[in-house]
Amino acid sequence: MLLIPCPFCGARDETEFAYGGEAGIERPADPEAATDEAWTDYLCFHDNPKGPHRELWFHRDGCRRWLEVERDTYTHELGAVRLSRP
Amino acid sequence: MQRYSIFSLLRGAFSGHRDWEPAWRAPEPKSSYDVIIVGGGGHGLATAYYLARNHGIANVAVLERGWIGGGNTGRNTTIVRSNYLLPENQRFYEHSLKLWEGLSRDLNYNVMFSPRGVINVFHTDAQRDYWVRRHNGMRYAGIDAELLTRADLARLVPALNLSPDIRHPVVGGVMQPRGGVARHDAVAWGYARAADALGVDIIQDCEVTGIDIQGGRVTGLQTSRGPIGAGRVGLAVAGHSSRLAEMAGVRLPIETHLLTATVSEPVKPFIDAVVSIAATHAYVSQTDKGEVLIGGSLDGYNSWSQRGSPARLEDILASASEYFPRVSRLRQLRHWAGVMDMSMDGSPIIAKLPVEGLVMTGGWCYGGFKATPASGWCLAWTLANDAPHALNAPFSLERFRTGAVLDENGAGPVAWGH
Amino acid sequence: MADETADIRRSALAGLDLGSRAGGAGGVLLAEGAAREGFVLRGPAGDAAFGQAVEAALGAALPLEPGEAGGIGADALLIRLGPDEWRLIAPLSDDGRLAARLASALGSGPGALVNVSSATTVVAVAGERAADLLATGTGIDLDPAAFSPGRAVRTRIGNAQALVHRKAEDAFDLYVPRSYARSFWEWLEERGREFGAAVAL
Amino acid sequence: MRRQPFRAAEGGHLIDRSEPLRFDFDGHRHEGYRGDSLASSLLAAGVRIVARSFKYHRPRGVWGFGPEEPNAMVTTGVREEARPNLKATEVPLSEGLEAFGQNAWPSVSWDLGGAVGLAGGLMPAGFYYKTFMAPARWWYSLYEPLIRRMAGFGPAPRTPDDAFYAKRRIHADVLVAGGGPAGVAAALAAARAGARVVLADENTRFGGDLLRAPGEVGDSDGLAWIDTATAELEAMSHVHLLNRATVAGYYDHNLLTVAERAGEEEGAPGAPAMRLWFVRAREVVIAAGAHERPLLFDGNDRPGVMSASAAGGYAHAYGVLAGRQAVVAGNNDSIYRVARLLRSVGVSIAAVADTRSGGDVRDLPCRAGEAVERVLGSRRVRGVLLRRADGRAGDKGERITCDLVAVSGGWSPAVHLHAQARGSLRYDEERGLILPDRAGGANRSAGAGAGRFDLDGCLEEGWAAGIAAAASSGHERAAGEPPRSPDRNAGEAPVFWQTGGGKRFVDLQYDVTAADVDLAAREGYRSVEHVKRYTALGMGTDQGKTSGMAGLVLLSEALGRPVAQTGTTTFRPPYTPVPMAAMASGLLGEGRDALRRTAADDWHEARGAPFTAAGLWRRPRYYPREGMDEAETIDAEVRETRAGAGIVDVGTLGKVDIQGRDAAAFLDLVYANRMSSLKTGRGRYGLMLREDGRVFDDGVVMRLGENHFYLTTTTAHQHEAMQHIELLLQTVWPELEVYATDVTEHWFAAALAGPGSRALLERAAPELDLSDDAFPMMAVRAATVAGLSALVFRMSFSGELSYEVAVPADHGLALWTRLLTEGREDGLTPYGTEAMGTMRIEKGHVTHAEADGRTTPDDLGLGRMASAGGPAIGKRSLELPALRRNGRQQLVGLSVIDPEARIPPGCQVVESDDMRPAPPLGHVTSFCYSPTLGRALALALVENGRARTGQTVYIASPVIDLSMAAEIVSPVFYDPEGTRLNG
Ligand SMILES: Cc1cc2nc3c(=O)[nH]c(=O)nc-3n(C[C@H](O)[C@H](O)[C@H](O)COP(=O)(O)OP(=O)(O)OC[C@H]3O[C@@H](n4cnc5c(N)ncnc54)[C@H](O)[C@@H]3O)c2cc1C
Ligand SMILES: NC(=O)c1ccc[n+]([C@@H]2O[C@H](COP(=O)([O-])OP(=O)(O)OC[C@H]3O[C@@H](n4cnc5c(N)ncnc54)[C@H](O)[C@@H]3O)[C@@H](O)[C@H]2O)c1
Ligand SMILES: Cc1cc2nc3c(=O)[nH]c(=O)nc-3n(C[C@H](O)[C@H](O)[C@H](O)COP(=O)(O)O)c2cc1C
Ligand SMILES: [Zn+2]
Fold it and tell me: Contact at 8 Å (CB) between D215 and D455?
């Protein structure tokens, strides 16, 4: 069970969080202008590395902030964790 | 191929079992093959077998980075069924189920396919409407499906908790009688042996590390045992799909997730059907060896670790104990997890990729074991004809571009939501 | 006013008839805490004007440490729960006065104040084994060195989310969502068997 | 006859001879002492056959001393109370204990299943893959049921385990797994350094190997040192000592599970049967000791063949003679120690056979360079054949009479926890040991578990590990001097495994022989993982603790490749089996899923309403009436509401308070239709899409002030909607100043519906002007209703004139009862979710049955609404070709032609009523009997549905063989002009 160091609350069990997938996916600034390809890239085609991954976690049972977490998807080792909106 | 039968066993008994031949050879890789299949799980091995048997293409190698059957094929809860909602999935999985029904004899290897019935129980009106509708839809697709009352459930699964006083009481169920389980390892081994007998080279401890492409066409593979030339390449690597596709510069709408399964210590049989519980998402069966085999939902985040969280395990075991209270008297023997290829709509991809000669099967989510025969069958067809069969045409990559996704659960483009 | 509401106010635990369960003496006592007013205060922690407005209205500084529960007078609290979130807790007898002051101090500046007085039920857990009982269902470190008396955090305990206010080393107030309160109470009582949990009125 | 013929007159530090206990095994009464394990008391009683093997039903006795036991599997308790698959070595003796040998009928000593063993030749590894294939049906109808009946160890459970199981979460600086000399030293060092320590050991008493064999620490007895050290630890408030506590699993980020058999502790009445600890440790010291390895020889599974250290342990710890006359055989120095221990309790030593050439000891009948070739005796050991270990030709060997063969093949460090943590392993070729290599978490291994076999070394390593672990967790106080021992003999064992041929068992539990491993290798199952799966080696309840290494070496030999290249199978949790009930505890029923109740729930319950689930909430379906069945009652609730007035509890809807400068702009992005144009005091129905264009949620948005909104979400999606809003605010548009607060729990709400609702509300809220002008449709006002401060919205789900009244939930029941009292004379009818559902279907309103995650706004007939707003979430996806194509399924109404017909659940919509396979046109999403229209109605998603209006189709449920004709109509069946909204 992951122990995620929430920058606000401190380290908490994974069960307090909801996962949000890859972090930092840019939403096309003008969706109407985006091609189908660019738009569906944003929707469906995400990074899936075996290794370091930047991802979103929602601290549902704590500060209710979305966190950006660096985590190795193989070892589950954590890197930097920051609030998505400081 | 040395034929297996009760007589060959008797002969073996008299010769002290000294004369059994290897089930498959351990060849050195040739410098090139007409077709190379990457991934020695059930899907890869089945693909090779059907290429040789159905299409006469036997200059084929299956490259497996570890040992065959060691991926999800060797670690799943072995449920086989075709009780799907969407017509595209119904057709495909029903084709698969039909192949299962003749598989042991086809391969001359007992894969212990056991059609003991797959039951889904529901708890609310909404769930009832959904499950009955799904089974009515199966009937219209020519698939067996039944509605079960609580009395039926009590008869078929006496160990099931039908008390009205539990948190989510069971109000009824549906069943696909032809569904069941099979012996997972035997599926890999049986396909391997049959493919090998038709001339396929099964090469273990051979990791693919690169895909050679010239002029937009695949020409061969880089492997831990050196480069190997290939006319066509089929990827059947489950949770590793995105890595392999990336080697060819292709991105996939697939994420890799953790799914746990667990077994109890073995006891005498007391659960004869496969039961899935809608309220808590757990599924329970008892193997022929006697273990109660329990699965649940994903841990819910990208992972290649094959090690699940104890929190999910508590949850799965609590569900199993709630609905099979007697299970609480058993002890948990072992738990493990797999590397799941979760697609963005919960349905698979069996398709040509945007590189000439490169095709894949993947995105199997929770359900690829049951798909093994049909996935291999379709991928072999696609490789042989350079075009998808009608059965797998809907499972294209383009559907994610056009929006024509096959979202069984209506969960949207959230890989872990399916 | 407080009297007038007495007959219309109904606790989420009323249906449990705690009176009939009262009694016993064990390592931990469970009781329903008095109903309180609660307000969610939102606003930019780093904005000096916001901080000053709050301080002016409440007569106490805006707590800035995560989990810090600043006292306002004798029996009201302002707890920092998130980067831009606080919870104001006041006795019913305050009758919205603190909140009204706060609302007018915020004026049209950034920030928000939302009444959530009915949103939680207070469960008081006290006694030698109080922390052990909570530890049957929460992953936070309850060692007083890590979670000292006077502080409050939001976390998950058993089947509910809870705002946990540690009043003393062995006394906690748990603010649990109203609709979960009965299930939570029953879960707590069941887990408390190990400690001979007793119900107090 | 003496009650305990194999109990020495004295000795045994674990037993209390003053307290004899009686127990039954397979129906025979025996006696043992407090402190005994079932295994030690069975041995004391002279019971040698305690189980039958899995496949061949061979007699089996006790092999080991603790959790490594592969053989002595028993069931305790009878019938309802039976607990299968317990290891006799782990079952503490208690007064009146009833235990049974397993896998045998009628008993382990006379087992008819033994006949199976005669056909053993037909059952080599994997035989079932080779047969039972034709005819296909026979596999399932005949062979498989037979195999199922034969398989499985203990009896299937007949009842749930309803003992109390506890759980506890705890944080530690250092968790020490294993309380032998190394572990106790580590715990002491770490605790003295100031670290918060948890020390867990699976036995009833700390000491580890010192329980089995005496040793010296400092200049006193080792166990005495253990007692002193643990007493010191006990006294420290920052230390937790756990006995009978198995560290079961090592998980991510140093979370470990520890299963404490708390209920076994004496003098702890009411203690839980087990307490499952979840320890989050900064550092872990693994001091798990080592498991003794067997030797392979013909008949090595006979009752009477036993691990040497176990035989010695039974003598030392329990004063039990595992036999009268022993041959001690092995490949390392420990056999001499064992032989002396046995002799000290009165076992006569027939021979000590050491496979090595040296090691002659004068006081024992030593046989250097000799090994056991074969066991004599068919049901139990009657002797052995000893032969030269180097297998010289012409050597016929010598028969030696004995009833106990104590064997030691060396030791395998218990690397399980290290490996579970994903630490790597390395094979020490010279010592024949698999050892922990790189750690896979913040942990370190020490003592025998790390390959240090001398007591002094174990203490030293343990101490050092404790110091280091404390330091890594930030505690560096001086810990004093480490304990030392004069025992520096590492007792190394050369790699030696087998002699001769015959039936040599590798995995005693699953009856895997050396020949099976060989066969697997020849058949091409060459990976160690294939051998495991093909033969079942190591898959038993002992998970191969004793057999793993032997299997590995045999396979390596068969393949002619080094052990290091063969590798091990994967070590997985739990270390020893954990009761399901322990894992499940606290999570059954409402412990897992709280049951959410609205403020008026007590009233519904008192009124006898049956409930339905809505997410975690429960809601009343209808309010039963005297002399009416369910359908009649629901019809009455509908009719009375449409004719007069009804009231329904809508407290479960999600509610969100939205404030901030950019609130309006934000809602324009969240909802497909525009919200910024709302006037203060007015509300609007809103549609939230997912980014893929599918309808996600709907509700009403009300503007309470310039920058203040209040919105509702569906009951099902309240948490998801909140999370979605926060995601957008925090990651997509962080620059917006918007505060969203979930106020679902704060508000209770009830809807008054029906033409009579206005008059009723007028009386309840006299200050409120309810005229159409002052309070038009979709307006919101603050008011006092029934003496309570409330918010009143005018909106309608039922299609009638309707008002929703919201009050703080603490006042919810008061509002509910006061309105009902107020409305008594108007015949105000409380109605439940069934009547509500019927009325909304009559009006064609959608719910999640229609918005099922696959439908677009246009599919649901809400396309116009969605095209009204700006570039909100999900809008772009609506442009994708598949979402615009013709032929999508669209929402329609189905009006059943036969007024007597009732629609069953789960129907498909088809073109013909013959129910033969054919692609359906669509399916029913919601259905009801409409008392208003006097026929059954349905909402359905039908291919090109809107264009089919007027066509006749069939609603069908093949699983119950029922179909009926229906006409496709507009989904708004009732009052399409909306005139009734005005009352
Ligand atoms: C816990 C669990 C329960 C499940 N339950 C069910 C169920 O009940 N019913 C059901 O139908 N499905 C179930 N599934 C899903 C099912 O197991 C899989 O979908 C299916 O077995 C996948 O088979 P495969 O052949 O595609 O993949 P795998 O068996 O995983 O084979 C892929 C192979 O590719 C190899 N590989 C990867 N990368 C490379 C490389 N670079 N070079 C060479 N080889 C490579 C891997 O080593 C692996 O052996 C479950 C899965 C899990 C994990
Ligand atoms: N050749 C020999 O004679 C020989 C060989 C090996 C060890 N030994 C002796 O054994 C001792 C080794 O000391 P040590 O402290 O390293 O080991 P130990 O075997 O004395 O103690 C390990 C303890 O950990 C317990 N344990 C193991 N796994 C556990 C788990 N998962 N959860 C809870 N408890 C667990 C065991 O039951 C045991 O009590 C020394 O006295 C050494 O001399 C002798
Ligand atoms: C259907 C099924 C039944 C299993 N039964 C057992 C069993 O009886 N004993 C056991 O040790 N493992 C059993 N396993 C688990 C395997 O030992 C192993 O954990 C799993 O295949 C995953 O492989 P890994 O642990 O080597 O990664 C079973 C696995 C499956 C899929
Ligand atoms: Zn947080």
Answer: yes
Q: What is the mean pLDDT of chain B?
A: 97
C135-180 pLDDT, tens digit each: 999 999 999 999 999 999 999 999 999 999 999 999 999 999 999 9
Beta bridge mates, B230 = B33
| Residue at token pair 């709408």 | B253
Q: DSSP 3-state assignment of D490? A: coil
Asked whether the predicted pLDDT for residue B383 surpasses 60, the reply is yes
Q: Which of D53, D91, D130 to mutate to test the interface with B (most CBs of B within 10 A)?
A: D130
Instruction: Kindly list the distances between the CA atom of residue D822 and the CA atoms of D86, D645, D781, D783, in Å, as whole numbers in the listed order.
Output: 66, 12, 20, 17
DSSP strand pairing (B180-181 vs B79-80): antiparallel
Residue C143: CB atoms within 10 A of its CB come to: 15
* Chosen from C40, C153, C159, C175 to mutate, greatest number of chain A CBs within 10 A: C153
**pLDDT, average across residues C79-89:** 98
Ligand 2 site residues, Cβ closer than 6 angstroms: D 66, 177-183, 200-203, 208-210, 215, 246-247, 287-290, 332, 334, 411, 414, 417, 447-449, 453-455, 458, 491, 575
Contact B264 D534 (CB under 8 A): no
Chain D within 8 Å of B11 (Cβ-Cβ)? no
Three-class SS of D824-845: HHHCCEECCHHHHHHHHHHHCC
Question: How many A from CA of B262 to the centre of ligand 3?
Answer: 8
Tell me if residue D20 falls in helix, strand or coil: strand
Residues D945-971 pLDDT 10s = 999 999 999 999 999 999 999 999 999
In this structure, which amino acid lies at residue D767?
E
**Cα distances (angstroms) measured from residue B237 to each of B243, B339, D789:** 9, 10, 63
Dist CA B75 CA B262 (whole Å): 10
Please, what is the angle between helix D514-522 and helix D548-559, to 10°? Answer: 40
Query: Would you call D249 helix, strand, or coil by DSSP?
Result: strand
Tell me the mean pLDDT in the region B14-31. Answer: 94
Q: Whole-model pTM above 0.90?
A: yes
Distance CA D904, CA D937 (A): 11
Ligand 4 centroid to residue B397 C-alpha, Å: 38
| Residue from D748, D752, D726, D727 nearest D739 by CA | D726
- Residue nearest atom 40 in ligand 2 by C-alpha distance: D455
Tokens of D913: 């009523």
Structure-block tokens of residue B44: 């890869």
pLDDT at C11: 96
- Closest approach atom of ligand 1 to CA B66: 47
Residues flanking ligand 1, CB < 6 Å: B 38-44, 63-66, 70-73, 75-79, 207-208, 236-238, 240, 244, 259, 261, 295, 338, 340, 364, 366-370
Could you tell me if D761 and D800 are in contact, meaning their C-beta atoms sit under 8 angstroms apart? Answer: no
pLDDT at residue D116 in the model: 73
Q: Write out the residues of chain B at the interface with chain A, using a CB-CB cutoff of 8 A.
A: 240, 242-243, 251-256, 300-305, 309-311, 344, 400-403, 413-416
If DSSP codes are grouped into helix, strand and coil, which group holds residue C152? strand
Rg over CA atoms, chain B: 21
- Which chains contact B through at least 3 pairs of Cβ atoms less than 8 Å apart? A, D
Give the range among C103-107, D496-500, D511-515, D822-826 with minimum mean pLDDT.
Answer: D496-500
Average pLDDT over residues C114-130: 97
- Other CB atoms within 10 Å distance of the CB of residue D474: 12
The nearest CA of chain A is from the CA of D280 a distance in Å of 9
DSSP D574-636: -SS-EEHHHHHTT-SGGGTS--B--TTHHHHHHTT--EEEETTEEEE-----TT--HHHHHHH
